[in-house]
């Protein structure tokens, strides 16, 4: 059941993070001339680039770059918060940091900026979580994400200049790993469903007798038959002796 608190999180967090992205972009683009991106972007395999693991998704190279990430980021983050109200803070933090770490270790020796890596991680998590969890709601979300964002797969291919395809690819990898890692973490509706299933099984075991229901009836009937034939035998023997 959707609580007021969760509904607030669905609206507050995606839009709040997006507002930070827009604010940082405006400051960087119009006031610093790109210095924030230069200093706080993700510089691979450099100690100076470690802060970029956290800050790079807030930085963008232009309006087109930012706008292309806006709708996917808000919608996918909203889906994560809505369908995983207990897990989403850990999942989002894991995907955000994990994608940054992978890019820092494995990416090309350039400055990586933009939220697209996190977007790919979110899409992959939501798409694969239903497969690993085998939960009806998670499967519905998986199909929804695959339908609307399946075309994003082409973004993992190298070739387009100025695009961090490593962020896309490694974000996708991180999303799959996250979906597998959190497959055993249950949401409230899954816990309730499991409890109901276990209760039904217990009730079924209590209702099922150890022996067949007619086992004792048969035994009683057999005893009555034996007594009848024994009495008949005794009468026949007595009658024979009287003769």
Automatic annotation (TrEMBL):
This is Rhomboid family intramembrane serine protease. It comes from Neolewinella marina. CDD domains: UDM1_RNF168_RNF169-like. GO terms for molecular function: serine-type endopeptidase activity. InterPro entries: Peptidase_S54_rhomboid_dom, Rhomboid-like_sf, Rhomboid_protease_S54. GO terms for biological process: proteolysis. It is found in: Membrane. It comes from the Bacteria. Residues 193-202, 215-224 have a biased composition (Basic and acidic residues). The lineage of its organism: Bacteria, Pseudomonadati, Bacteroidota, Saprospiria, Saprospirales. Residues 193-224 are annotated as: Disordered. Residues 53-182 form the Peptidase S54 rhomboid domain. The chain crosses the membrane at residues 20-42, 62-84, 91-107, 113-132, 139-157, 163-182. GO terms for cellular component: membrane. Coiled coil: none annotated. Keywords: Hydrolase, Membrane, Protease, Transmembrane, Transmembrane helix. The keyword Membrane applies. It is a multi-pass membrane protein.
């Amino acid at each position: 059941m959707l609580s007021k608190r969760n509904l607030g999180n669905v609206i507050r967090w995606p839009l709040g993070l997006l507002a930070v992205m827009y604010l940082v972009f405006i400051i960087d683009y119009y006031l610093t001339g790109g210095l924030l991106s230069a200093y706080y972007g993700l510089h691979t395999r450099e100690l100076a680039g470690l802060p970029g693991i956290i800050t790079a998704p807030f930085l963008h190279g232009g309006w087109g770059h930012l706008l292309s990430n806006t709708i996917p980021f808000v919608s996918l983050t909203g889906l994560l918060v809505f369908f995983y109200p207990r897990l989403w803070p850990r999942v989002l933090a894991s995907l955000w940091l994990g994608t940054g770490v992978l890019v820092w270790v494995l990416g090309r020796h350039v400055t990586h900026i933009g939220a697209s890596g996190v977007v790919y991680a979110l899409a992959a998590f939501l798409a694969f979580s239903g497969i690993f969890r085998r939960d009806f709601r998670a499967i519905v979300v998986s199909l929804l994400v695959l339908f609307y964002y399946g075309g994003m797969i082409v973004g993992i291919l190298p070739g387009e200049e100025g695009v961090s395809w490593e962020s896309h690819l490694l974000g996708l990898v991180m999303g799959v790993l996250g979906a597998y890692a959190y497959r055993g973490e249950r949401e409230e509706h899954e816990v309730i469903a499991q409890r109901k299933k276990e209760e039904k099984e217990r009730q079924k075991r209590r209702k099922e007798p150890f022996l067949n229901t007619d086992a004792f009836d048969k035994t009683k009937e057999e005893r009555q038959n034996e007594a009848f034939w024994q009495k008949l035998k005794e009468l026949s023997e007595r009658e024979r002796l009287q003769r």
